[in-house]
Amino acid sequence: MSAPLLKVHNLHMSFQGREVVHGVSFEMQPGEKLALVGESGSGKTVTALSLLGLARGAWVRGQSLFEGRDLLHMSEDQWREIRGSDIAMVFQEPMTALNPLFTIGDQITEVLTLKKGLTSQAALQKAMDLLADTGITEPERRVGSYPHQLSGGQRQRAMIAMALAGEPKLLLADEPTTALDVSLRGQILDLLDSLQRKHGMAVLLITHDLNMVRRFADRVVVMENGLVVEHGHVSEVLSHPQHAYTRRLVDSQPERNVFEPVDSAPVCLQAQGLRVSYPVPMPGIRGWFQRGQFVAVQGADFELQTGQTLGIIGESGSGKSSLALAALGLIPFQGELRIEGQSWQGQAHADLPLRRALQVVFQDPFSSLSPRMNVEQLVGEGLQVHAPDLNPLARQGKVREALADVGMDEEQFPGLLARYPHEFSGGQRQRLAIARALIVQPRILVLDEPTSALDVSIQKQVLDLLQRLQRERGLSYLLITHDIEVIQAMAHHVMVLKDGEVVDAGSLDDVLERPRSEYTRSLLAASFLRMPAPG
Hints:
Distance between the termini: 19 Å
CATH superfamily of one domain: P-loop containing nucleotide triphosphate hydrolases
Oligomer: single chain
């Protein structure tokens, strides 16, 4: 075996005296694909950042030898020389990693002129070639686009093109597909795989997605609480995990535990010919006098029965969120939409009963929960509107009951009611969001990507909670997601949206086992569900 390209030995990292990485060791061979796996807080990202000297404020000791040179004892000038040239990084969220003030072309050519010494004209041509290599159409036009003018997948491809500009020997990919739709995830992973073979570079993939690891990596290193707990070939580790934490990750796939549908159950939410459109400016002189229309949902028909879940799947821009907002009565729509036989009136007082019957749980609880309100205020806020006659003591009792329903109490969290959202983990915040929705005793919950921002084991806990609440209370769920595994675990019926149109609909088995549209088949193929482990 050749000398390792990278050898990390006994790496320790501390922030303000608190050690977060405890003696991590692993090796990478030239051209190898290694996955660094673990949940939030496992230390995988700061370990990768230390390889580029980007873990600001960290006290680091140990060794990280790259081609024999110790990365941990380099001067700033040496760091500047190695960053982008020998080691490059693709970050998790391109919208925050790319500079919004410069075009994509400017940001790629900057690397080429500084690292490769190319002239402006040669750098521009090379930037277009790199964009074409990453699958971006019309690179001559896109090279002049700003980050906000590109889709999520295009921004991630542009970031990969920028990382490849310096022809690195090692590419660090930190959750490169987490923020993308399921089909884009597959495309980006296939792109990284083909570029890795084409350029012969090594790739260190940082992720918590085991399906992605199975599809992409040669070897895997599993981290928990700053320690390496298991490592080896992907097929061996994931098929026969030895450590309890690895077994927990492997077993964290969502499980189905719901009541099967009853055909005679009453319909609680019904839409016929539902159409949602937004005004858009028209080009030229016509725009002075009239506005055009963008149709986000085109004539959707669906029914949701009591105690059942209707899963809505589709990529970004498919119309899922617009459909949910229309169901919640938050945006204008055309067509018919009835909640337990009643329609939205557009008047606060008249719509109040429907507001109580239909509640929502958003994707990111950290942004949907006010940081200025404590738990008692957050969870009990709905009672001030829907049960204003309750006195403070009775209201607090209702808050405690709602928190207990989602598995949170004072014994587990001392001073729970006086705490603020930032004092909880992502899964705990999502439980607070669910309690906030449940406290007014709704009959329908709109679940907008309720687990996409969570680690796999926390995702399973939240899905188990939602399944239990549905069984105990007969709740109906309108579930919006791009995760096919979540659909398999939760949904009774499924509706597939593409460009605002319903392209597939039916029972769970009908849609997943016998899809009618090519688009549905492509989503299923891209979900990694049927991808065998390599080797």
